[in-house]
Amino acid sequence: MDSKEKTIRTDADNDHRGTPMPTGEIKATLERAKRVLVVSHIDPDGDALGTQLAFGEYLRSLGKEVILARDSAIPDKYAFLPDVDTIVPVSAMPDDIGIDTAVILECPTLDRTGGVKKYLSGDVILVNIDHHQDSASFGAVNWINVGASSVGEMAYEYLTEVGFDISRKVATDLYTAILTDTGRFRFPSTTKRTMIVAGDLIALGADPRTICDQVYYNMQPTTMLLTGRVLNSMEYHNGGRICLLTLTRRMLVETGARESESDGLVDFTLFTQGVVTGALLKEIDPQTTKVSLRSNNGVNVSEIAARFGGGGHVNASGCHVPLPLNEAKAEIVAALKEADGLAS
Ligand SMILES: [Mn+2]
Hints:
The chain is of the alpha/beta class. The protein folds into two domains: 3-216, inorganic pyrophosphatase (n-terminal core); 221-343, Roll (Diaminopimelate Epimerase, Chain A, domain 1). Helix content is 34%, strand content 18%. It is built from ten helices and twelve strands. Strands 3-2-1-4-5-6 form a six-stranded parallel sheet, covered by helices on one side. A six-stranded mixed sheet has the order 7-8-9-10-12-11. Helix 8 links the parallel strand 8 (242-247) and strand 9 (277-285). The longest helix has 19 residues, at 325-343. It is elongated and about 60 Å long. The structure holds manganese (II) ion (MN). Manganese (II) ion binds at residues 47, 106, 131, 150-151, 181.
């Protein structure tokens, strides 16, 4: 799930919806454990990695054997997190890892752990910590707080409650988790409590300038060149209410950027006054166009994505359209115009 999709949560003033923190239950379960696996979701983000590292430190402080596992690669922008390379790819793990307990962070279902799921069956006791609305209670212990900005914020509440001594390193992990999952303290999930926690983490040694720069303002030259090319493709339609961006194969070749370097570019479609819906069209091959859709009003872009076999959320969705770029663009503009007319 990309970060934008988290904006769909509402009622963010309520800090503690969902189940109350089962502090004693989590603590007792982890204290009984010998060997603990800590895992988060595929394609990990800052919240996944930061909170995973923080839990690793906490469990080691309890004298536990700890395995931090991941399904997918760690994005370059999180390489600065201390000891992030101790999170082991599942491809490098043996068949039997001898765990008795697992902490699963921000996974609505076990499938979200990707290849790590194979270790999460049998007698393994599962501790499920999440803040997603649709989270299933698959654990022996479940703590779901859909009002929390991030599992990083939840982890802070738990770790302080149990008296864990948060080091500068763990403060950096948790601050990164909260910063990124709130879209730099921007999404509606950002509460007064979120800011207090972030402030506490700064007091414990997290450096807001360095962390923000590492994550957001430390791009590869190829990424910046690609960003420039894609922004140069900007088009407005429907009297400036629809904004389109286009990414061609040629732009990738000419800038030397990988496709993954276009992550987040779709956000630019909503940065113009008066724009209510946006789309980024990516040429996958001569007959296929990948479309990312965004809206910031009543337009439900997931309905448009569903027409092309895709899906997502009301304000952030995606699909693959089996048409060349220009034909896909015409279809998407028509669909967005129609939806905007119905919504307004
Ligand atoms: Mn999260």
